[in-house]
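Question (not urgent): is this output format expected?
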Amino acid sequence: MTGNRSEKRRADAGAQDREFGSQVVVVTGASAGVGRAVAVAFGREGWHVALIARGRERLESAAREVEEAGGSALVLPADVADAGAIDAAAAQVTAAWGRIDVWINNAMATVFGPVTSMRPDEVRRVTEVTYLGQVHGTLAALHHMRKRNEGTIVQIGSALSYRSIPLQSAYCAAKFAVRGFTDSLRSELHHEGSRIRLTMVQLPAVDTPQFDWARSHLPEELQPVPPIHAPEAVAEAIVRATRTAPRELWIGSPTIQAILGTMVAPGLLDRMMARRAWEGQMTGAPEKPREGNLFEAPAGDPGAHGRFGSRSRQRVVSVSGTTARGVLAVVALGCVAGAVAAAWRLGANGTVTKRGRLSDRERAARMIS
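Got this back:
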């Protein structure tokens, strides 16, 4: 009896696959920035794309871009901090398209300013969106993916998941929390023998609208810490990560350098960040502190880009975190081996010299005798 039910479920799943054709992806934070660029990139692949964010106007605009690129779109206005709303959105996706193949947790919120300027409600809200938003999305995705025992969940992280910087303490803490949550879940999926894949993508600085609408307690205009990357280049790397699902993908040479540098010399980077990251997040142009988009969705539709297009890199390198760590380990072992060899040579030379001196003394003694 159980076998018959299993066969029926597989047959139903196969029928849905045939009926719905292309694959299904859910993108949170899809109305602007990296999330929007990712949604359009999947549209170019012909995918069904479900877009979750606050602000219906921007979602509708993003949906049109997805459809113009060749995909189909489903607009789902929701706040990722609301677990019930995310569960309901996931149910709408499966009702419309039968399944969820990929879920990308991208939504974020931040506050710029020193720790002493932060209010408890601001820290709480950044945590609810940037950390708990990824937890809510992951749980919703797992609920539906477990029915078919397949799917891919992508957590959008940052170099700041490893290397905190000044003036964004709440955001950095939330990204660290996402990494801890993801590592625990990965172990649990391995324990279960699950075929659901889990990957975390660590991003560099990207040219997005957040620097014009994030809440700020700073007196100067905001910017990403250079070098800055175009959202489309980053989006393409994220799409590739959904195909290969590495444990982690580090995007951009600054990300690779920051993560490896933190592993090797965290104290040195603390001092570097105190200077470079503090100044690097401000342009020098005056600006009044602003409320930003922390609690309310901002007006307007800036699209995927911020105001740094002329300074943005259009190409980006990426490497598996496992590969990068392996290279670092090889380099470290090479340094250790080189140090040992050098010490051995110095020791050997010292022994020869010592023996040479003893031999001279013995020779002199023989000459006297």
